[in-house]
């Protein structure tokens, strides 16, 4: 019988090779784990860098208009370096909101760094009322213009708290520090066309923000009287002319209009349940110095001076588009008239004690002007011919005309607009060329040309 072959060496060799394979596999797994960890870390850092670049803080001031990434109600930042509730911060808040005339108001103005808000704040302060502003300086349009308005208000001892309407603790703190007699609520996401790009910003600002303000106001002691900015846009597809407060407003033509109409219904609810005295003000195309760059009169002026073509709309049936342009000083008088005639709210501790005042008024100029006439006036004031491109109005929420009936506002607080479009635009253009340094640049260019010729 043949002897069995010796397999011990083969078995040992196989065991050794198996050991090497396991060792190699372990090293490979360890290396892969380290590589995966490093890759994950790099991806995380890249994401942080991406969001830092693309979502800058609200305090940045871009040099041109960009669609805003933050609503009026994003993060809370305060104009004071002191923390909220700090002694220095509270001192500024109290000093700004303390009236200087007998029986003067103490008014919280939301949107105080905005166009209408800044003008109303100055008018209230100049007559001796206490004014505290609230604004978050978003970049729907160039925030540097809002900062310039803030600087102007600061010169008149008006302090603007930088924060959000939806910041409940902040609003509660303000009402704890100051027993406001009135609120002039002008903060909102403005503009009809921008709603197509960013609809959520209108809901957050114009509805959620308004509700949050009313929630805090209803629990305040004393409850303030509130006047707030509605809009002529609520008339939507209304065909009655001129627009009266009695006309239907259940056919909004834009999301902006729908949010303002929702605000009027919300105001009715808080008046009915909690006894808040509320006055809605339907503004008609407000214009003037320190205005909004997204408004036609403003960017028409800019484009005419820069030799750019401007789009002038006509209706689908080839009629001229017309607006009831209302000068800022007239609107301010209307806002102050509404505050002066506002009755006290009737609630206490969040409970209604009796019927409370609820009003809505048109604040317009009562004389619609075709947009083509607006352009002609600007051409004369700027001594420059506009490059016009007449096109049909796109279906973006704009309406063909607006025309205010202000009989009710005249009857209740003597509202009577006195500034026609030519006079108002003259004041606007004077401010515009001064603010943007156009006259000084023109003089320098003229002097430079004179030196070159000599």
What is the chain-wise order of helices and strands? HHEHEHEHEHHEHEEHEEEHEEEEHEHHH
Shape by Cα distribution: globular
Q: Compute the CA-based radius of gyration.
A: 31 Å
Sheet-strand content, in percent, reads: 5-15%
- Strand pairing plus helix content: what structural class? alpha/beta
Mean pLDDT metric: 85
Largest beta sheet: strand ordering: 3-2-1-4-5-6-13
- Strand tally is 15
Give the uncertain stretches in residue-range form.
51-82
**Head-to-tail CA distance between termini:** 128 Å
- Main beta sheet, described? 7 strands, parallel
Question: Count the helices. How many?
Answer: 14
How much helicity do the residues have?
A: 40-55%
Characterise the protein shown here:
This protein has 14 helices and 15 strands. With 454 residues, the protein is an alpha/beta fold. The strands form five sheets. It has a seven-stranded parallel sheet with strand order 3-2-1-4-5-6-13, with helices on both faces. Strands 7-10 form a two-stranded parallel sheet. Strands 8-15 form a two-stranded parallel sheet. Strand 2, helix 4 (143-155) and strand 3 (159-162) form a beta-alpha-beta unit. Mean pLDDT is 85; it is low at 51-82.
